[in-house]
Amino acid sequence: MSLWHTDWYLIENDDDERWKGKWFIAYLYDASRFIAGYGIFDEATTENAISVLERSINRYGKPLKLLTDHGSQFYANFGEIKVSWN
Are 63 and 41 in contact (CB under 8 A)? Predict the structure, then answer.
């Protein structure tokens, strides 16, 4: 379990109305595409991402690395910070 990657996906086109508009998250083991954990939620939040991650770690152990996009659920969002090098 060297690398897991994850992202949120909004379910928009589903024949089953129960899932339409819900957010899906999965943690996949990169080498085999094994799904270590997943969840379906009303909102894509940091708390929901962490809850699925914790359950996955408790079941399969902690991965060495975790790869995500830079979405606000995974990274602090401070807005644009401009740095002057003068």
Answer: no
